Structures are given as structure tokens and as C-alpha cells.
User: Fold these one by one.
Assistant:
Number 1:
Amino acid sequence: MTRGTGREQSPAAPRSVDVARLAGVSQKTVSRVFNDEPYVSAEVRRRVLEAAEQLGYRRNNAARALASGRTRSIGVVTLGTALYGPASLLMGVERVVRDTGYALRVVNTMEGDPAGLAGAVGSLLDQGVDGIVISEPIEEEGAEGDLTVPVNVPVLVLGAPPPFTASTVLYGAGGADLMARAAIEHLLDLGHPTVHHLAGPQRWYAAKDRLEGWRAALAAHGRDRPPVIEGDWSAASGYAAGRELAADPEVTAVFAANDDMAIGLIRALAEAGRRVPEDVSVVGFDDIPVAAYVTPPLTTVRQQFDTVAQEGLKRLVHAIENPQAEALPASDPPVHLVVRASTQPPPPRRPPGRRRHTASRPGGGPHDPPPANGGSSTHH
Amino acid sequence: MTRGTGREQSPAAPRSVDVARLAGVSQKTVSRVFNDEPYVSAEVRRRVLEAAEQLGYRRNNAARALASGRTRSIGVVTLGTALYGPASLLMGVERVVRDTGYALRVVNTMEGDPAGLAGAVGSLLDQGVDGIVISEPIEEEGAEGDLTVPVNVPVLVLGAPPPFTASTVLYGAGGADLMARAAIEHLLDLGHPTVHHLAGPQRWYAAKDRLEGWRAALAAHGRDRPPVIEGDWSAASGYAAGRELAADPEVTAVFAANDDMAIGLIRALAEAGRRVPEDVSVVGFDDIPVAAYVTPPLTTVRQQFDTVAQEGLKRLVHAIENPQAEALPASDPPVHLVVRASTQPPPPRRPPGRRRHTASRPGGGPHDPPPANGGSSTHH
DNA sequence: ATGAAAGCGCTAACAC
DNA sequence: GTGTTAGCGCTTTCAT
């Protein structure tokens, strides 16, 4: 209707020249208006915007990218899981990216993906992103070490050491070891002689970090370090681990690397007649939405995904827009241990080999309303 | 190093002409090779690929998009939540999109976002996507009905009726009503006189669908339709609902619109002395990863996000690549009710007003190992 | 404060 | 089978 090419199919999107013509200015002026450049009179700006509105003009991003060499988009590599941690981080990233005016492109790396991280990053590079976020990468078999593709955009790695070298690499989401440590110390403070660890899959850096925090905390307090059981993040693996641990009367406290495993673990313990928290205390990690409502309500470490995403992206965008400048400093997120009903002091020591069931804990029965978010204390 | 512009900064990405020159062919031939077009001799193809490899050539997508008018990317609008359902769907979508050779752009609509769906779609249109997936939209206040922006690309709406008109609109992820219905019928089959419903927020179409299935099932069987309680998907809201329902001795079966609410509900019931499943049966929806490991293991409706995503995207891509062709038909996903321990026949009827605790269920105590995935039956 | 001209790196249509 | 010629719709640089 507007531009008379004759074809009715879909009336060809208006271009900036069309707007310029209608507004009676040059095409460049339209460009100026849309880029908020200075030196456009208010009157002209108004005319241009009005013409654009009338035509339903949207600027063509491909042309823009081609001419400017920047796509104004950020790519994120995530694992293709709906696991609470990675999914929450992704949502946090999206929120911030949009706020900063960039577009978001997403690719997944599946566990066992042959191309893996390199493939994912390559695909983003193909798409021409201005920066890359790698969220919770896992260790690749074989492709250990450097990426084969040269990465010429800034990269933000959330929750892991550098998987490769790029022009600029930033880190974020550290401090999981400190968080784990706070969990362990909570249990030691309650009087547990030591704490067992149900670790996450060690190909995940997140799992390694938590293991490391556990190790460090026990070492710092001169405690025994019992053997580690490795799960796969799933409640099923936590359940399997629980069956093992239930058989060992020495176990009075367990730190699980995520809440799902903690829930499976608690179930297995309960089925074996070892009550939580009376006989065994359990701490999880993540603070998933149901953590306060399972039985017993789970003591756990809350991750602040939004904060982590926000802080990391601020630094990434800074690096994109100020290529020569110094990288902004990272800051460890605060540790936030949420104490609920799954932890309490250990049962009194007694000669091994005798089965017994101790009295109920003071005021901690299942009839207490779960603290909505209550009982949380912030360490560090 | 290769192209001598003198600047060492970052040695300017090679272009297809550079490859052409090195391979001793025309630039167009390079284009042919990279687009897998026919009519290139094996020998030339080899030379081109080798030259490209040597130069580290990656084709410029902005230029490609500008010249061809297609971005080879699909945009997805999701809610900015890590809720299991939406997050799983997003992951499913990503997986399929990559397989089909498209890139994925993601924008969120936050609840209460002023721009809302229109803003999100507009932002994708700005980015120049070839197709749009709208995942689980919620009803917008005010902006009811049509989008103000013209959408000239095919749109796939997952889990909702048409929020607007576009050139092509496809639907997917229907059938939630049938799934809800299967859940209700499972409870009726067990002998419950009727089933209460803890609904999701009714601004979500997914919540409406489940409510509708509940309503239809009760109507079909001529049962009472008790008042509906509306939650917000959270375990906390399920807990609140549970306190209400616990006070009503008539309640013997509850269908919760998602698992998180079901878990909160069960906790509130337990605290009020109403055991699940002995006194009250509960069915959830989603089959979240921990559903089999909470106490009691949750009977729930499993959603097949991968299938839904795959099926929907196949149709979307078809619509993108065959603009004139008939839309591929949709197919309802199969209903998959996973029966675990949170449901059983109702306790024997007795005069109202008397409190009692009935015997334990036959072989259904907490010491049964949770069926990993067991006890599932597929309806419809 | 505004405009003219020259590409950005590719694909499309046609020639050979 | 391969090359040539034009743009795609912007941003950039430089004039004015």
C-alpha cells in the first residue's frame, strides 16, 4: 500500500529512506534520530518519529550489524537441563541482558555432546555475538584445555575456571566453596564430629567447588574426612547414596551438593529407620522452591542467581563497550545459609552396634509450620 | 598476519573474497560451497574448504541475513521463571531449534511487565527472527486481545489460545485438560466421592486448562464440584491451601495443578494431622524430579516437554520454509499419569464431626522403596 | 545542525 | 560448473 511495488503479499517493510522521504529529511537524519545522536533539532526529531510511527518502521538489525560490525547481542552457553541451578542462572542472565539493551542468543551443550563447549561457542561466534556467557560449564573429556576456535569477544565464565583463553575472560559466580564451608561449619557448630559429603558429579565445576569447600572446612577444624559419595544431582542418586550411608552408624551429618539429592537421601534414610534430623542431619544446596515444604524442611545454602548474573553481566558489558579498559573487579556473592528443620545436634554417642531411637527434638516436630523463609542467617 | 592491513590489534576477520583469492576461485564459488549448493566440483570444493580452514574463515551472518532477508533464527518468548514447566519447555525448544539449524533468541516476559507480550514479540521482530515461539503465555491485563504490532512471521503458541492474529499461528502443547481429567478419574476410580482442586493462577492458560479438565471430569461423572482454591504455583501457596482444606473433613482427594503446590499442600495436611494418602489422596502435575522422593512419593501427571517442543517446532519450521503450504496438523501429546504412593482409596465414611485415625494402608507405608518411575500407566 | 557518498560481506539473478 | 553484476539497509566519513 505504501511502497508501490505492486505485490500484495506482504507489503515490504519500510526502510529508513522511506521514513526520511515522508519526513522530508535525509536518510542520515533518520539514522541519527534512531541512534539518539546529538545534533538533531527537536522539531526534526519529532517529524521523523512521527513518520516512522506512521509507516510502522523498525530498523533492520542485520543491516545495522553489517554496517557497524556489532550485533548488540550476547550469547549464552548453558547446559540443556531444567536443573534448578542452571535454569535459574539462565533466567537471571536473560533479565539483565535485556535491561542492558542487548539481545540474547542461547545455545546448549548437552552432556556427552561431541562438539561440546567448542561447538557451542563456535555457533555463537557464527551468529556474531558481541560477548559470550558460559554458564556452569562442565569438564569435557578429551577437549581438555584450550578451545580450538579463536574467541575474539569478551567471555564471562560463570562458576568455573577458564576453560580456554580468549581476548578477555571474566569470572563470576565463585564462592561456592565458601558457601559449602558455611554449611559444614553450621553442622560442626551443632556438635557433629564430622560431616559426610554427597557430592555432585565431579565433571561439574560447581560440584568440585562444593567438594572443595567441604574438604577445606573439615581440614580447618581438624576433623576426619570420610569417603565421598558421588551422585549425579538427581534425587534418585541421593536415594541410592542414602541407602549406603544409612548402613553406617557413624553418619550423623551429611552435606548434599544440591537439594534434589538431599531429598532423595532423606527418603532413603527414613526408609532405613534413620530419622532426619533426630539421627542424621542433612544440609542441601540451592534452596529450591519446595525446600521449605518437604519433610523435614531442608536446611540449605541459597544461591543468589540474580545477583550473580547481574554482577557478571555488568562486567561483561563493560568489557564489550570499553575494549581497552581495565576489567571491572569481581566480588564474591554473600553466603546465605538457610537453617530449617533438617539439622540439629547429633544424638548422644553410644556404644556401636546397638540400635536405638532417641527422643524427639525440642520443638522441632513435623507440626511446626515451616518458616516461609525464616531462620536464615547470612555468613561471610 | 594474513591480510596485511598493518594493525596488530585483531587481524580483521577474513571474508569470503579472501578465501576465494587463496583458493583461486571467485567469491561466488566460496558462497556456493558454504551453502551446499550444487554445481561445484569436488576438487574446487576441497580447495575452498582448505583455504577457509587455513584462514579461519567464518561467514558473516549479518551480511547473510541482509542479503537473503532471512536470519535463520527463531525467537522464543518465555516467562522469566525457573518454574519447572516453563524452564523444561525452553530447554526442549532449544534442543530442537539447534537440530533444525536455526539459532535461538530468547526474551522473557515478566509477570506484570508493562510492555508484556507485545514488547517481547516486538523485540524479537526487531532482531529479525524468522519465526516465533510463545511459550506458556499468561493473560495480560489491559492488553487483552490483539497485539498492536503486526507480526509477519509464523508464530507457534505453546499452551494457550491465540493471543493475537499473525500471518500464521500454530498451537501446540494442548491436552492439559485431558491430562487433568485422567488425574481426576484415577481418584474417582479409587472410590473418592469427589475431588477438590487446588488450581494454578488463572491468568495462566495452563492453569485454566487443568481447571477445565477437572471440571469436565467431575461433570462427566455427575459428581459434586467443590469450590476451587487458587494458588500461585508455589509450595507456599499450596501450604496455605492445605491449611484451609485440612479443616474440611469432607476432603478426601485433592488435585493440585502442579507438584510444588502439591508438596506444600501435603505438608500442611500432615501438620494438621491429616495423613496422605490414608486420609487424603493428593495428585500433582508435572512430575518434577523430586516427585518420586518426597514423602509420600507423589502421584502426578507427567508432561512430555521434549515431545511437545519437538512436535511444535517441526510445524513451525515447516511453516517458515514453506510459506504457502498448508500447516502441518497438530497432535495432542499422550497423557501419562504416574501413580505413586500419594493416592489410595478414601477412608471409610463415618459420621462427621468425629476425629479418627484409620489403619495404615495395605503395603503402602513409608518403608516401601519409591518406584523409580514405576507404577506409571498411560491413559488416552 | 544536516546531507552525500561510500561501503559493510554477503546472496541473487543472470550470463558464460 | 563457474564468474559477473547488483543490491540488501544500514553506519561511517567527510562536507557543508
Note: Residues 15-17, 27-28, 31, 35, 59-69 of chain A lie near DNA strand D (CB under 10 Å from a C1').
Number 2:
Amino acid sequence: MSKCGRKKYMRTNVRQMTMETVESQQDRSETRSVAEHNSAHMQTGQISVPTLAQVATIAETDDSADSEVIDSHKRREILSRRPSYRKILNELSSDVPGIPKIEEEKSEEEGTPPNIATMAVPTSIYQTSTGQYNEETDLAPSHMAAATGDMPTYQIRAPTTALPQGVVMAASPGSLHSPQQLAEEATRKRELRLMKNREAAKECRRRKKEYVKCLESRVAVLEVQNKKLIEELETLKDICSPKTD
DNA sequence: AGACCTAATCGTCACAGGTC
DNA sequence: GACCTGTGACGATTAGGTCT
């Protein structure tokens, strides 16, 4: 099965995996089903990480769901899109004062003219005509960690939305005539789309990491709070129930 | 030393949702 | 409705660790 065909299959028939799919996806299926269910929880804007019991239930229903019978509405609910990480994090931050917001990228773009001159020069050198690229200073986690230290610094770098060298803006459609020009235009558009999507994927992953770090730090804070409350409760219990000896 | 395993990372595709 | 953006999922690649 081709990559695309397989992908489509997975998306539209999440619960109806063929043997082939199960074979190759076995190690991932658990994670995916949890994520899908989680996305259903998150859709309403609540941050809802499944409990162990929920995870167990999810796994159970996923197994039994081989007997299909999930109506289209429910399936749609499950597959529906979750809010972006920025959205989630910002909602979190409005609930909990300690959590920093991810700034809108617009604010960073202010003051910089919307042209190619804003390109982050050393980031990536693309040879788009061949589809190859050379990321000399890619923002790998090791780089990020070195730059940011332990605690996450939200909005670490400016988004590199500018065009890479060698990608020329398309000519106006009216100026195209020959089939060759049309083909070149199509190729250029595709390369531009791929390049943008590449950058978008990087940004998305970066935000996801921030989001996860944020959740982890929140867990740490809540654990400390919980511990303190338990200690306080014990103290109050001691005070309120004097010994009878 | 090299075979194997595992986790991390990346580019790409498909698609939902947003924008104009 | 066409186009754009954000993100889940996939396969490929790579780095680091372990075993023989």
C-alpha cells in the first residue's frame, strides 16, 4: 500500500485495522488511541489528560471496537481536531497565573517588514530544486536545551516564516503561457508548500514540547501543593483530636 | 567490531478548521 | 469555495546504548 493510501486508510477507518496495518502499527496503536480520545476531551477547551482508568477503558474499547459499530457522529467526535497547543497553553495560563503565555507570533513580526530580508539567515539552506536541504544549525533539542536551560522559555525564537534562498515568488498567472512554464510554476508552488509545511511542522513540534514541559512543571507544582495540604490536614487532625491517655 | 534495539528527530502527507 | 495553517500520523534516518 502506498504511503498516501495507507494514511487515508488509517484516518478514515481508525477502528477497522487490517492485519497488515495491525502488524506494522502495533507498537503505536495504543498511544494513538489514547491521543485520539484525549483530543475528544480537549475539544471543548478543557485540558483533560486521561487517568489510568480512562486509559484502560480506552484500550478496552479499542480492542472491542474491532466489532466496529461506532456511529459516524461518535467517530467524528473522536477524530475531530483539538485546539492548538498555543491555545491550550494560553487557556492554562489564564487559569493558573504561574504559567507563561505563548505570545502571538504577530507581536514578533511587528516592526519587521514582511519581506525576505527577515529570513533567519543561518537556519537552513535549502536546495529546493532538488528537494534536498541542508540544515546547518537546525534547532535540535540539544541546541534548544543549551539555549534555554531547565525551565522552558516560551517563545524561544522567532518563527522563520520567510522564504528560503532560491525560492522565488511565483509570477502572476496571467504571465504564464507555455506548458513548461505551467509545470515550473506547479513545481515552484509545490516546493514552496513543502517548505512552509516543513517550517510549520518544526514550529508545531516546538510548541508541543513547550506544552509538555509546561504540563510537567504544573504537575510538579501541584504535587508540592498536594503534599503541603496533606501535611496541613494531618496537623489539623492532631489538633482537633487530643489524645485520651 | 558489528549486530541489534530504542528513542528522538525530521520531512511529508492528509485533513480539519480558519480566513478571505 | 479556494487557499492557508496547524497538527496527527507515517516512514526514514540517526545517535546512543547494550549484547554477543
Note: The CA atoms of residues 1 and 7 of chain A lie 9 Å apart.
